[in-house]
């Protein structure tokens, strides 16, 4: 049984994109074909999951390694651990959801815009798989840059009035980060064993770097990831992008792609530069804290629905980074679980916002009010997503947020206390948003339809994920925990005593 | 010095590619003289293409087995020389295909009917009425190509200077032959000529100083002289720097770049592509040999200067490209920035420096020619539409051409899976491995700045509104031009996805004969 699972996951959406792009001009099959391909990819992804062994001691599974550019030491090397597999599955689930939600975003005219739109989504899916599955630093960099292109066009061709500015801002921020990382990528190769496969992650972990080299290279990587997983003060591209992009594009961008930032911190910053990671921790935790509080405060003040949701994400990314750099098992597992949960939460919020905007035509929260009387189902889903966003016990985010705070508390009590303030602020911005949009007297307006069958189909998996991950996170935690343990081993951090029992069956404190 | 004159042995077989090109060019001159106006184009084009193909075949078949120093060691036929000569021939082939574009005869082509007549004069009218066509571009281009091939294998300062003049003089003429905006074209030609003469004078001055220092023009002798101490040490560094001025002028490095935008804008667009791609290859090839063979021993003296020039070139090229509104000028400034990137690789001074420089030159050449070819095809009311605003909405009207251009822009920006990225990676890693990390950092930041302008062009094409475009449209190109564009795009993609074969070639040939 030697199926190249990951290559299939990578190639299938690309083939789909090509097929969609080449469909005849007047074809009505664009959307069904695109959805079919994304579902087929999801099926392959579930197949790959069945082949994944959570108890294996290997760092990466389902690996495929072929020489690609031996002169540079580059291999085409794919493999997954618990974290990357979870992130890939998150993407695989959210892409069909977004396709359903974006069904009527672009009318089928004869200018092939619809072809382009769905082909770009499939291309995005492929780059998403690639970036999480690459276990060769150079290959990771290739996908890291390549995924900018579909997003750039998705925002630029299908966004709002200032879409070009938003797309260009997004591109330049990411590109600057990426190019700074390129220097570090070259540097880490030169510091490593070199040779024809010198870019493999496994050949670069545990290097004996000089302190200065390690810190410089760490910074090169970290800057790129901090821009990607927008941390204060380099988060400014995100609100603009979210405001101008289609809500479904934002779901994929913020829900999945930006997780490359936090994923990269675990996979590269921590694993390759343990000493530098420890050295930078105070500053990074400080930045994470600022991101958390500033993001939340700015979210409270927003009147633009999409900007508001994007600021909540800045705040949540602060949480995730904090969990990663707490260097405790609980914090790490909480942070990685948070990455998944945040994907679903953001998806719920953006999809509902998209539905409201499609019905009303305005992004401004002040134009709403009393919508629970007009569209009770949409309002219900909005409330549900908002509850997930403020980490209501029993919904998905609660588990991860709780674990992050516990994990941080074990090592940095003061930070954990301030983080708890972020939790309170989250309740504030979420409830304020719901109140302004959904409560109040019935608005004077023409009848708008409530959620259609297609929209219900689109949000159903997201709502299911809220409940599943809220009540029964264990399967996901079991996949995540070994990977987090592995990365903590790289850093050489041991959990501080006394260990606090966690939500996992195994507990922590080895 | 002996008083016995011995005729130098010349390896005619090894020099066959060069000889073929020059013979083809001279035959072209004869054709200009004796063939009738109607048959000229039909004779010249096959003649020049056949010359290049034949020369390339001769190079591939005979080159590898005939390496060595020849003609009293004034010529080196070694790995880098062969690779760069082959590259020059291939790029020249594509460049000539683009130059041969007649736009189906329905629209005026790129070249004026009478280059010698002053714009708007009666002579010009007469030539236009008689339907004259300018076919002397083919032999001129061939002569220039011959000079370039000589340039990359010259192992002697005097021969280097001769080659420099042979490659430059035809280019000065070609620059002045644009059909539209004659005055601009002639002005560009004059500027190029004057500044080029200046730089040649600098070059000669440097060469004489080095001769004074080493007592010989041969690179090998100069290298040997650097190793030993002579009484003329004060001449060495000024000589090297003055020589470098001449070479840096040719590649358009800052602060010797002033001519580039004006000349690139004024020249007929196919010629611009030809110049931007191939002249860079030749000039960097010569620079590699001078720096690695002749004056490598004094590198501590000149490396900081070249590093400063590289940094300046990248920054100035990138920053000034942002404020341009003319596509040809944008590409001109971006070519300045790219010259800076090549310098970053060149400065590494090891084998990786040679191979990465050669790879970058190949990648850059194969994206530049098709890019200018596409610029030539985008026309509005009978002449080229080079204002960025005129390109708005091109993606909707000519999706294939816009897609090809967008892809080339991604390559210019150095996005992975294009040759541009592979090349950048090669030069930056060569530089970093030799401790020039700060140059690489400046390089990546400059890359990000240039990316802005490339993506702006992409955005304008795909997202711009048609309101300001007028009747801009892409003219259907001939089969030859189409082939040139497609070949360039395919190579650009190929070197991004599967660069190994060319990297192998570049690495296995990256050793100069001394």
Automatic annotation (TrEMBL), chain A:
Among Pfam families, the record links this protein to: Oxidored_q5_N (PF01059), Proton_antipo_M (PF00361)
Question: According to its UniProt record, where is this protein located?
Answer: Endomembrane system; Membrane
A GO cellular component term found in this entry reads:
endomembrane system
Recorded hits in InterPro entries, A to Z, give:
NADH4_N (IPR000260), NADH_Q_OxRdtase_chainM/4 (IPR010227), NADH_UbQ_OxRdtase (IPR003918), ND/Mrp_TM (IPR001750)
Spell out the molecular function terms from Gene Ontology.
Answer: NADH dehydrogenase (ubiquinone) activity; NADH dehydrogenase activity; ubiquinone binding
- Ranges for the NADH:ubiquinone oxidoreductase chain 4 N-terminal domain? 71-129
Topology class, membrane: Multi-pass membrane protein
BP-aspect Gene Ontology terms: ATP synthesis coupled electron transport; electron transport coupled proton transport
Q: Which UniProt keywords apply?
A: Membrane, NAD, Translocase, Transmembrane, Transmembrane helix
Domain named NADH:quinone oxidoreductase/Mrp antiporter transmembrane: residues? 134-424
Record field: transmembrane: 82-103, 115-132, 138-158, 170-191, 211-230, 251-273, 279-301, 308-327, 339-358, 370-392, 412-434
Q: Chief subcellular site?
A: membrane
Q: Which family does it belong to?
A: Belongs to the complex I subunit 4 family.
Q: Write down what this protein is called.
A: NADH dehydrogenase subunit M
What is the species listed in this Swiss-Prot or TrEMBL entry? Ornithinimicrobium humiphilum
The organism that produces this protein has a lineage beginning with: Bacteria, Bacillati, Actinomycetota, Actinomycetes, Micrococcales
UniProtKB/TrEMBL annotation, chain B:
| EC identifiers of the protein | 7.1.1.-
Which Gene Ontology molecular-function terms are recorded? NADH dehydrogenase (quinone) (non-electrogenic) activity; NADH dehydrogenase (ubiquinone) activity; quinone binding
Q: Which Pfam families match?
A: Proton_antipo_M
> Which reaction is recorded as catalysed by this protein?
a quinone + NADH + 5 H(+)(in) = a quinol + NAD(+) + 4 H(+)(out)
| Subcellular location(s) of the protein | Cell membrane; Endomembrane system; Membrane
Example of a GO cellular component annotation carried by this entry: plasma membrane
- What GO biological process term is on the record, naming one? ATP synthesis coupled electron transport
Write down what this protein is called.
NADH-quinone oxidoreductase subunit N
Which organism does this sequence originate in?
Answer: Ornithinimicrobium humiphilum
């Amino acid at each position: 049984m030697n199926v190249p699972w990951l290559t299939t996951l990578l190639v299938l959406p690309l083939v789909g994109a090509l097929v969609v792009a080449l469909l005849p001009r007047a074809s009505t099959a664009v959307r069904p074909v695109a959805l079919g391909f994304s579902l087929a990819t999801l099926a392959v992804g579930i197949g790959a999951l069945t082949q994944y062994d959570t108890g294996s001691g290997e760092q990466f599974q389902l690996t495929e390694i072929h020489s690609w550019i031996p002169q540079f030491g580059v291999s085409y090397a794919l493999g997954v651990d618990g974290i990357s597999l979870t992130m890939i599955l998150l993407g695989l689930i959210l892409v069909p959801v977004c396709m359903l939600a974006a069904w009527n975003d672009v009318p089928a005219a004869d200018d092939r815009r619809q072809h382009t739109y769905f082909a770009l989504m499939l291309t995005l899916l492929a780059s998403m798989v690639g970036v999480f599955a690459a276990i060769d630093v150079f290959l990771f960099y290739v996908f890291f840059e390549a995924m900018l292109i579909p997003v750039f066009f998705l925002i630029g061709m299908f966004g709002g009035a200032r879409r070009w500015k938003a797309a260009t801002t997004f591109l330049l921020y990411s590109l600057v980060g990426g190019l700074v990382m390129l220097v570090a990528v070259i540097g880490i190769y030169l510091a490593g064993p070199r040779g024809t496969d010198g870019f493999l992650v496994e050949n670069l972990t545990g290097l004996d770097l000089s302190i200065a080299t390690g810190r410089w290279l760490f910074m090169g990587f970290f800057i790129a990831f901090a821009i990607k997983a927008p941390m204060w003060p380099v988060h400014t591209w995100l609100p603009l992008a979210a405001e101008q992009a289609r809500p479904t594009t934002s779901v994929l961008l913020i829900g999945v792609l930006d997780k490359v930032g936090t994923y990269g911190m675990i996979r590269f910053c921590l694993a390759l530069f343990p000493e530098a990671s420890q050295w930078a921790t105070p500053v990074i935790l400080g930045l994470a804290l600022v991101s958390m509080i500033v993001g939340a405060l700015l979210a409270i003040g927003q009147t633009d629905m999409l900007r508001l949701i994007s600021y909540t994400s800045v705040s949540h990314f602060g949480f995730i980074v904090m969990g990663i750099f707490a260097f405790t098992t609980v914090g790490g597992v909480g942070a990685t679980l948070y990455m998944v949960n945040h994907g679903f939460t953001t998806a719920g919020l953006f999809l509902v916002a998209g539905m409201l905007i499609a019905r009303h035509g305005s992004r401004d929260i002040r134009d709403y009010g009393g919508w629970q009387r007009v569209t009770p189902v949409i309002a219900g889903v909005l409330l549900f997503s908002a509850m997930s966003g403020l980490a209501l016990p029993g919904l998905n985010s609660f588990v991860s947020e709780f674990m992050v705070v516990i994990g941080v508390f074990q090592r940095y009590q003061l930070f954990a206390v301030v983080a708890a303030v972020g939790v309170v602020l989250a309740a504030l911005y979420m409830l304020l948003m719901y109140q302004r949009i959904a409560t109040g007297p019935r608005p004077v307006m023409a009848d708008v339809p409530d959620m259609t069958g297609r929209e219900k189909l689109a949000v159903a998996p997201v709502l299911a994920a809220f409940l599943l991950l809220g009540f029964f996170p264990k399967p996901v935690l079991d996949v995540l925990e070994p990977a987090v343990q592995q990365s903590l081993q790289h850093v050489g951090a041991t959990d501080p005593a006394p260990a606090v029992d966690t939500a996992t069956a195994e507990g922590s404190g080895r | 010095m002996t008083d016995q004159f011995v005729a130098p042995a010349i390896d005619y077989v090894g020099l066959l590619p060069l000889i073929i090109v020059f013979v083809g060019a001279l035959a072209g001159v004869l054709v200009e003289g004796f063939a009738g106006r109607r048959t000229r184009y039909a004779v010249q084009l096959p003649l020049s293409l056949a010359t290049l193909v034949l020369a390339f075949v001769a190079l591939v078949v005979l080159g590898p087995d005939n390496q060595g120093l020849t003609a009293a060691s004034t010529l080196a036929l070694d790995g880098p020389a062969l690779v760069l000569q082959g590259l020059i021939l291939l790029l020249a082939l594509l460049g000539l295909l683009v130059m041969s574009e007649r736009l189906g005869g329905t629209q005026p082509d790129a070249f004026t009917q009478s280059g010698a007549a002053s714009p708007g004069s009666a002579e010009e009218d007469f030539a236009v009425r008689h339907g004259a066509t300018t076919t002397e571009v083919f032999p001129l281009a061939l002569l220039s190509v011959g000079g370039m091939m000589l340039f990359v294998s010259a192992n002697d300062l005097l021969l280097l200077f001769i080659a420099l003049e042979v490659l430059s003089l035809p280019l000065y003429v070609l620059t002045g032959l644009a059909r539209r905006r004659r005055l601009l074209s002639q002005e560009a030609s004059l500027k190029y000529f004057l500044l080029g003469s200046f730089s040649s004078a600098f070059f000669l001055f440097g060469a004489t100083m080095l001769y004074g220092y080493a007592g010989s023009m041969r690179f090998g002798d100069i290298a040997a002289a650097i190793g030993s101490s002579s009484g003329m040490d004060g001449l060495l560094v000024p000589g090297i720097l003055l020589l470098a001025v001449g070479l840096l002028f040719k590649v358009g490095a800052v602060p010797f770049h002033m001519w580039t935008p004006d000349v690139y804008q004024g020249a007929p667009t196919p010629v611009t592509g030809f110049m931007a791609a191939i002249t860079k290859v030749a000039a960097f090839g010569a620079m590699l040999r001078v720096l690695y063979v002749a004056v490598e021993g004094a590198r501590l003296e000149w490396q900081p200067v070249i590093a400063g020039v590289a940094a300046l070139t990248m920054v100035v090229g990138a920053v000034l490209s942002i404020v341009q509104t003319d596509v040809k000028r944008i590409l001109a400034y971006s070519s300045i920035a790219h010259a800076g990137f090549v310098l970053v690789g060149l400065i590494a001074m090891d084998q990786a420096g040679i191979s990465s420089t050669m790879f970058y030159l190949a990648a850059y050449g194969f994206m530049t020619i098709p890019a200018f070819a596409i610029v030539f095809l985008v026309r509005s009311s009978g002449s080229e539409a080079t204002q960025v605003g005129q390109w708005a909405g091109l993606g909707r009207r000519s999706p294939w051409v816009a897609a090809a251009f967008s892809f080339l822009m991604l390559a210019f920006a150095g996005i992975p899976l294009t040759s541009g990225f592979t090349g950048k990676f090669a030069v930056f890693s060569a530089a970093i491995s030799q401790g020039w990390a700060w140059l690489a950092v400046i390089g990546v930041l400059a890359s990000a700045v240039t990316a802005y302008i490339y993506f702006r062009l992409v955005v304008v094409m795909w997202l711009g509104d048609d309101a300001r475009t007028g009747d801009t449209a892409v003219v259907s190109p001939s089969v030859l031009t189409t082939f040139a564009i497609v070949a360039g795009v395919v190579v650009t993609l190929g070197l991004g996805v599967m660069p190994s074969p060319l990297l192998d070639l570049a690495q296995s040939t990256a050793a100069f004969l001394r």
